[in-house]
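Q: What does the assembled structure look like for these inputs?
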Amino acid sequence: MHVVLESLDAGAVRAVWCDDAGTPAEELELDRDELPELVAETEAEESPRWVWSDTAGWYPPLLAAGVRVDRALDLRLCRRILRLAEGAAGTPIATLPRDAWDAPPPPAAQGGGLFELERGAPPGDAVAELARQRAAVAASREPGVLALLLAAESVGSLVAAEMSHAGLPWSAERHRAILEDLLGSRDGGSRPDRMEALAQRIRDELGAPGLNPDSAPALLKALQVAGLGVQSTSRWELQEQRHPVVAPLLEYKKLHRMLTANGWHWLDEWVHDGRFRPVYVVGGVVTGRWASDGGGALQLPHSIRGAVVPDPGWKLVVADAAQLEPRVLAAMSGDAAMARAGQAVDMYEGIVRSGAVADRQEAKYGMLGAIYGGTTGASARVLPRLTRAFPAAMGLVERAARDGEQDRRVRTWLGRTSPRRGEGAADGPAAYDETRTDAERRRAQQDARSWGRFTRNFVVQGTAAEWAMCWMGALRSRLWSMGEREAPAGAVEPFARRPHLVFFLHDELIVHAPEELAEEVAEAMRVSAAQAGRMLFPAAGVEFPVQVAVVDRYADAK
DNA sequence: GACCACCGCGCG
DNA sequence: AAAGCGCGCGGTGGTC
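A:
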């Protein structure tokens, strides 16, 4: 059963009950204020799949009113997937002209009090769009697989909204202590004192009294004048130099980064009432990974993770999927030898034991090189040995790279399809066009290879993102049923006494859990990971172990 | 003053 | 030790 929600004008909403093909049966019009009550009642009695234009618009106000939903379909996210999906090519949804459903999502609601209508016009008739999408899935090559992708993407959108709602527990006090400890104290508007002292040392060592070390061009000039043979001010180049300025400069750069990215200003802007509430952009990356908008949620430096602390009586349960991408590659390629290596808790050790490489380091760089398309250094050196040991797995990424180079599109395990290469002058045909100059041809080939590295990585990174969404979806259900024993139904705050997800970082999840449930949550994270593996790869025989830590500070996990 | 490209670095 | 993939963000210095 689907219930489609649509915005009407004048603060009204229409709820339309549809069957699984998207055919409407009955409908109800109501005031926006009445929506949370309707959703809560319908949820309890019928457990439908809610269908709406976008979760980021509809769900936050429901959460703010204390209503959690179990299942949803985010039509805008699904439209984007179906538009490009090779499996649905030829269906009307792939060929119809661009319309409002293709428009980028409106900015996410802040504060949870705004409904979709107030964030910009809704894209149109949601009932019709649901029917179009259901028809496209039904007509596609693998309806079940594509349907799983749409469901996974949608559950991701629910989790994103719920995590923003709950927030990542954050101690401003601890954060300030970390800043003072590392950067020094700041009085007035100038640099914190440890940074200012370092800046002065840099000026002294370079003999450049007026130098502002924050200015890359000025710094580069000063470095060159002082006799350092560097072409840039980047860390890896500086590290090769033997000069007394290097140590204070690298230290200064580290502190400067911390000050500008996660300093006092960031704290004031992003942490309120003991919570950091980032805005996640589900499907914001071409591969299907999430992006974030503001706050740099997906770049939280390790040095600041000591400020992430649970509420009194609660714990953080931090789980990290070990070697996710190599395991995904083993599973999707059906490479029996690599799958065997993937049965080890540490897959890189498993690869060492297979005899293909000498040590863990080689296994790691070799695998990353295979997945990213490394052409130099250690990863290139071990590539031939990996190819001999794991022909099916290496064949899969090589094929993906060739497909990209030759302008064929590639797809993830669940059918997310890579975009077509841009229409730039240097693209595609120029590589083979005899009338082009040598330079043009070289550049085109360069671009083709670069696109090949993208498609090579797309299939693995994208499938890993699909695994992660299945993991979080499975975990979300378990957490909710676990919490049922703790929280009275219909509590105003759905997560007040229940373990709930608070952070997601590509292959890592954090649950904020009542202390007495922490171990049970840890087990749920492991079980959900295994479940996600079976969901995607029923026959692969690859394990998806997660490292779990129950901690009082995020920094203490691993 | 608004906008943009580039650099450099944080994360996976 | 860095490289090959995917991102977001702040600072600087250029353009309009």
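Residues 216-217, 232-235, 253-254, 257-258, 261-262, 289, 296-302, 324-325, 461, 464, 505-508 of chain A lie near DNA strand B (CB under 10 Å from a C1').
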